Task: structure prediction
Amino acid sequence: MQIYVDADACPVIDIVERIAENHGIPVALLCDTNHIIASDYSEVIVVGAGADAVDFKLISLCGEGDIVVTQDYGVAAMALGKSAYAIHQSGRWYTNDNIDRMLMERHLNKKARRSSHKNHIKGPAKRTAEDDERFEQSFEKLIQQAYTMIDRFS
Result:
């Protein structure tokens, strides 16, 4: 098992690294040349700044049983397609049961913005300590579930 983080502007890198280190799970932080990241624990993989370059590199690296941390529904869908686990920085798990609905909602929202000529939407609310706690608890549960699946098939 390995953890891959879509690290460009990811607010939970420190939490991911701390929990991964406690479990002895290797982490790869993927970022583009516009978001250089340093880490004492994780492998940092810097990818060219092309559109979706980080996303495609992450998907090329992850595999069955790995964990992907991303806020991008498309990346999550591709990770699920490779039998990896995927989690949003909010702590919400992406699953085969919810990813189609999430992708459709994203599509419909984008279509609505285009038709109203509002291309810029208000960004997310400022991250709180409660947000971090929610992610931490959810991430721990996801790791436990991944370990359970590994044990089940070993």
